[in-house]
Specification:
Elements lengths: L1 E11 L5 E5 L10 E2 L1 E4 L6 H13 L7 E9 L4 E11 L14 E5 L1 H5 L7 H15 L1
Parallel strand pairs: 1-6
Antiparallel strand pairs: 1-4, 2-3, 2-7, 5-6
């Protein structure tokens, strides 16, 4: 069995919408949308990985991401995903990002995101976000 260890960043706006990457053409597991982030390298912490991946994918210097949680999900008989999630509020417009991976990005409400074709396991991250957003209200 192959275990993928990843870190993802969730940018969210003042309307509790989350920024997702259009993964059409770069999908590894059939997903069409996903959070920005990626593989945790050997001897790299999940936080270091999400900072590196944000720089590689958005050309953006991520500072002080807040740890959201950790989930593990069996995708199929051969693959499991260990996902470390971090969260940061969007304090600027999307023009601060220079997207270097994927074909686009868009803000989605949690309800809209649940209807998208995302990686198995992302629904666990969306559930965590829902709890956090409800506490903020």
């Amino acid at each position: 069995m192959k275990e993928h260890k990843v870190s993802v960043i969730i940018f969210y706006d003042d309307k509790n919408r989350v920024l997702l990457q259009d993964r059409t053409g770069i999908s590894k597991l059939g997903e069409e949308w996903g959070f920005f982030g990626g593989h945790i390298e050997k001897n790299e912490s999940p936080e270091d990985a999400v900072i590196r991946e944000t720089k590689e994918e958005l050309d953006f210097e991520l500072k002080n991401p807040k740890f959201l949680g950790f989930d593990k999900k069996q995708v199929n008989k051969e693959i499991s995903i260990e996902c470390h999630s971090f969260i940061v509020p969007l304090k600027h417009n999307l023009s601060k990002f220079n997207q270097l991976e994927g074909i686009g990005m868009k803000l989605f409400s949690l309800n809209q995101a649940r209807k998208l074709k995302m990686v198995s396991g992302d629904e666990l991250v969306l559930k965590r976000l829902e709890k956090i957003f409800k506490k903020k209200q």
